[in-house]
Structures are given as structure tokens and as C-alpha cells.
Amino acid sequence: MLDTAALKHLPAAPGVGYKPQHFAQITAEPGSVNWLEIHAENYMGDGGRPLAQLRHLAERFAMSVHGVGLSIGGEGPLDTDHLARLKTLVGWLNPASFSEHLAWSTHDSHFYNDLLPLPYTDTALTRVCDHIDQLQEAIGRKMLLENPSSYLAFAESTWSEPEFLAEISRRTGCGLLLDVNNVFVSATNLDFSPQGYIDAFALEKVGEIHLGGHDKDEDDHGRPLLIDSHGREVVDPVWALLDYTLAQSGAKPILIEWDNDVPDWPILEAEAARAASALERIAA
Amino acid sequence: MTVTQAEFARAMMDAGEPIPLGLTDHQENSAGRRFNVYRNNVAVSLTEAMHGAFPVISKLLGQKNMDGLAGLFLRQHPPSSPLMMFYGEEFPAFLEGLEQLKHLGYLADVARLELALRHSYHAADAEPIEADLLAALSAEDLMQSRLSLAPALQVIKSSWPIHALWLFNTRENAPKPSALAQDVLITRPEFDPIPQVLPPSGAVWISALMGGATIGEALEQASANTENFDLGATLTLLLQGGAITGLENKG
Prior knowledge:
The complex is a heterodimer of chains A (284) and B (251). Chain A has 284 residues and is of the alpha/beta class.
């Protein structure tokens, strides 16, 4: 295993979302797994096992902190208590990367525990950029912003998603986290070309790629409605879209996300190994 | 056709509300079932969080009843912060307020125990003192000492057999609970919180210590409450649980 903990950025290699049930095996048999990502909010207690495990893992692996609760796309102001908690975590852990979502989850002090969509308008653009400026100021580093999975569209939107993200990156200096499964899910649900989306994406700003599994449903008209569930293997068309992306972007850190019905370690590691093969193919 | 987040949230939390105009599919049809993905995600994720947070309540009530209760609870008390580890603070009081559960009077206190276990799990680490430090004191000095207690320590007072109920529903071959009041002490010697039954007035003694009383002053309070209060047994529980983190002698 590489001594990546000292690196200031994630290695262009596979990583996985860390699950406590894999703690022992991750260090004993990391296989293709070079780095780990944690959900920030699970490590905001004051002590105990979660923080002890995190300290231990951070000595051996490059770490990525992925926030799921800041509500960057929220209409209201950011929760300053939560900003302070993020600052504390990023401060002591000093991870290789910090990322959050183009989404909202809090309204009127209620937290909905889901990533909710926003319209791509000039007003939303200004608000998101203000929030990212505020976050980057608070934690003292640049963040990566992730593209969402879309199930519906806003009639009021005036920007395409890749343009919207590229403009946020241009204005705030933040990098982008490209979730290739989310692209596939959104493209299926909203009937656009996933390759076209990748072509339009600011790939030079991408600091990390996410891959995960999705579920299948149907809308009112019997058309496919894919749901980002992170509960199974990455499907073949998404692996193909990863190849398509890497051919243009070059090697990137690639994360396997598997948050529900978490499998045994060898199954998760096999997904990471498949990502390693994809990286090898573009190096060849 | 602007859709505010207030409108979005209202429709998401109440399936009786119309889906906001301005949310569409790619052909400008109304979003319809597509919006239900969000309704479903929020309800399912918060219901799962409640099952994970209150496994014993879930077992006592049964999966389906707990699903129903969680559905009511999450709409009345959506999380107030992204720290899901502490979701459900209002659940014990919510349970107490339900007329149809009045015959299960112990539920709220069992829920308090489960909440306290989670708080203990995530509490700050603290180094315990050596037991010898206490043993070295004369009886008089001991009575005049004050103790600092670990952040992971929790005390739950109850008129129900909450420890027995918890044990019966989390351990195989645990004895059937019998009807007696149990105050519970939670300590965290390492990473796993351990709930144990306190002797009568042990909770009074510990609460007095936490309020800044000396060991002697706390003993007076406990003895006023229970004749023959067992100081030794209570102190031993704290020491074994690594829950005493500081000793201050009054010179």
C-alpha cells in the first residue's frame, strides 16, 4: 500500500466509502483500495469508536470527507453551527479532499436527510456561489461540488447542469466531483445523452469521480425512472460511461459508493478492482 | 413558475398536498410519480433512522407498528440538525403523549435508555483515574472529595424495569423482566456503552456528584432517600466502568 496519508490530494486510484463493518478487513486486505471516503456527519460526535477508527484509518489511507448535510443549495443561510462542525473535522483530520453536493436538505431549520433538487437559475447560481465562498472561507480550503441525480426538472431552469456547475467552479474556484452514476440516472430519467453531458462537463475541474448502484422504477407514463440508491453493484452501462469519461479526463480518483445493503468486503473490493482496471486501460 | 423550497418541503412531507407546478418531466408533463421519489426517500430514510436509533422500542412494538409511529413522528419532528446520530430526542415525550400506548407505560423510559446509550457512544473520551487514588484516602478525606465523571456516563431514573426490558430484547436467554423500578447507569469503559442497574438511590448519589457535591454531601442526600444506601456498590460500578476521571481533595 502506498503511504498516501501525507498527500495533499487523492491518488488517481480507486477508493471506497468507509463502512465500520469493514474496519478490520480494510487494513488487513485493502486490495485495490487506495483511499477512503467518509460522510462528514457520521464523525461529528465528541469521541468514542467512530473517531478512534477514523484516526487509525487516516494513518494508513488518504481520506476524503464528503458532506451530506450542509444544504449548499438551500434558499436560507448556511447553518453556522454545522459550518463550525465541518471546520473542526476538516481541521483535525486534514483530509486530502472535502466535497459536498449541489442540493439542499435543510429548510426552515428542518433537516430532511435527502439531497433535494434546485432550479438552475441566475438567482440559484448566486446563492450557491455565496454559500461555497462561505464554506471555503470557513474550512480554509477549496471544495469539490458533486452533480446530483435528477428525477424531475424545474420549468424555471435557464442553465444546463454542466454549464451551471462549470460557472460555479469558475466563480468560486471550487473543483467538481463527477458522479458518473448520477449522470446515467439523470440522463435516463430526463432523456438526454449521458455522453453529451460528459462532453459538456468541465472535466479539467474534476477532482474525484463517484460510482454507485441504482434501482429501477417507472414514471406515470411507463418510462424508466432510475433511483440513485447506492445499494448494489455498478451496472455495465455506467462502467462504459466511466471508460468514456476517463478517455477524455485522464486518470482520476474513483470512489465506489455502497451505502445501503452493504456487502461483504470482498464484493466491495471487487468493485474497486474493476475501477482499477478502467484506470489501467487508459494508462495503456 | 418558481417553486420555493417551502412549497417543495410541504408537498414532500404531506402526500395530500398537490405537487408544486413547475416541477416536470423532460416533456413538461407534471412531475407526478417522479416527485414521489423524494417523498419516499425522506420517509424511508427517517423511518430507517428511527429503527436504528430505537431498536428495542422497534422490537417491543413490532416492525409495522414502529413504521407507523415513525411516520407520524418524523412529520411532527423532522430532524433539527444534520447530526442523525442524535435523531429522536423528542421521541420519549412523543410516546408518552400517545393515548393508544398508555398501557405500555415503560416505553418512554426504554426510549430514554436507548437515546442515552447513543449519547454515551459518541461522548468525548476521558482517561479514568487509578482506583488506588481513592483507596489511599482516609474515610474523612474521601467524604470531603469531589469526583469528576466521564462525559460518557449517563443516569436514567425509572419506575419501570427498563434494564431488564432492554436486556430481554437485546440478549439471548436473558431472564424475563419482573415488575420493579430500575435506575440505570451507563458507563463506557472502552467503546461500547454498558448499562447496569444502580442500587437504590445510586442515581441520587451520582446526580448530586454531577451537581458538584462532595462524596459526603452526596451520601447524605442518598441516605436521606434510602436507609442503608450502598455507597461501596455504587462507587464500584463507577470505578469498574472507568467513569471517574478526576479526584479533588479538599485540603
